[in-house]
Amino acid sequence: MKSSFRTFEPEAMRDIVTSNGAPQDWILTTEQRNADRFAALAGRWDQDVWVFAYGSLMWDPGFHFAEVRRGFAPRAERRFTLCDRFGGRGTRDAPGVMAALENGSGCNGLVFRISRDIIDVETELVWRRERMGHAYFPAFIEVQTDQGPVEALAFMANHAATLIDTDLTYEQQVQYCATGKGWLGTSLDYVANLAEHFETMRIVDKGVTGLLRDARAYRDRHSITM
What we know:
It is built from six helices and nine strands, in the order H-H-E-E-E-E-E-H-E-E-H-E-E-H-H. The strands form three sheets. A five-stranded mixed beta sheet has the order 2-5-1-7-6. Strands 3-4 form a two-stranded antiparallel ribbon. It is of the alpha+beta class and 226 residues long.
């Protein structure tokens, strides 16, 4: 399946995010993204790069890869701390919620291997998507796979960013998951995709399945359709 993220241009989203309250400089410039990318990949240009996927990268990575494995990051944790108010899967008036990667006690996902000969082109696509704004920062973390451990590029929650809110209550997460919608789709579809992929991989993640169950119940109670 061809991914729209191969042609995604962050600048095209400027009107959407600013209309939802984002400052004009919220979207990084090409120069800023490339500086961030070159710094993160310093000393790694002559080797394959693994990318850890814990959210939508799992079902729509948008970059070319040579190999994919199931992965477990033992010192990270998926938490629904990204409160999307800027138009992705929620708006200023009806926020959405998405996963962010925090320090923690373990996170299941996938790791994709990008071959060294296409690193420049493919990581540029990764940065356009994951570093559109300031919500995440790049870091290399340990990921365990059935074939052995790898050091993988991950995009971690930036607690200084406007969209990261570690004080969200579970009740707010449920409401935002049930009602958030933007140009990327709904927050509910995002969480449902996570649950579907974990079911396929026979991974039990009570945080994902519980949020999906409770958000669906919230929509039923409030007769919400999208």
